Amino acid sequence: MLLKQIETLINERGSAAVLGQHLALLRERIGALERENADLRAQAQEAQAHVQHQGDQLRRFAQDNPEGWRCDGCGSADLARTGSRPDPTFGALGIKQAAMTCRPCGAVSYFTLD
Ligand SMILES: [Zn+2]
User: Fold this and answer.
1) How many domains would you assign to the chain?
2) DSSP assignment of 66-102
3) Rounded CA gap, 62 and 102, in Å?
4) Looking at residue 9, what is its pLDDT?
5) How far is the CA of 107 from the centre of ligand 1 (A)?
6) In whole angstroms, what is the distance from residue 106 CA to residue 100 CA?
7) Residue 94, pLDDT score
8) From ligand 1's centre to the CA of 55, what distance in Å?
9) Cα 96 to Cα 106: distance, rounded to the nearest angstrom
10) Distance in angstroms (rounded) separating the CA atoms of residues 79 and 68
11) Is 88 in the same domain as 56?
12) pTM score, whole prediction
């Protein structure tokens, strides 16, 4: 693309002075494109890392909190089961609650199990 443009300029204008000016402009343009390319690469890398992190988190949620329960403290779904207790109301009937500890805030929430 760029080479084609240079070729066109050489064919149209011919003169070395004009060619020199155009080459200087092209060098400037290439520099700008290289900077833009570096910025875009950095952004793509950042986005890829973000997606990777989100994927890891989703897999962890699916594994550790398949019910999609939410922390009573902060609302996060990043919970890990850390125990259980008898349900305060129906414990006598053998119904239990799962104790889920929130990774972000550390709060323990209880959820009645089916
Ligand atoms: Zn929390």
Assistant:
1) 2
2) TT----TTT----EEEEEEEE-TTTGGGT-EEEEEEE
3) 15
4) 66
5) 5
6) 10
7) 94
8) 20
9) 21
10) 9
11) no
12) 0.58
Per-position pLDDT tens, the chain of length 114: 777 776 776 676 667 777 888 889 999 999 999 999 999 999 999 999 999 999 998 898 889 999 999 999 999 999 999 999 999 999 999 999 999 999 999 999 999 998
Q: Which amino acid is at 73?
A: G
Q: Tokens 């006598």 — which residue?
A: 92
* Whether residue 71 is found in the same domain as residue 56: no
pLDDT of 32 reads: 96
CA dihedral (10, 16, 21, 26) in degrees, to 10, reads 40
Q: Which domain holds residue 51?
A: 1-64
Q: What is the pLDDT of residue 96?
A: 97
- 66 alpha carbon to ligand 1 midpoint, in Å? 17
What separation in Å is there between the alpha carbon of 109 and the centre of ligand 1?
9
Residue that the structure tokens 């104790």 belong to: 99
Q: Is 111 helix (H, G, I), strand (E, B) or coil?
A: strand
- The CA-CA-CA angle for residues 16, 21, 23, to 5°, reads 90
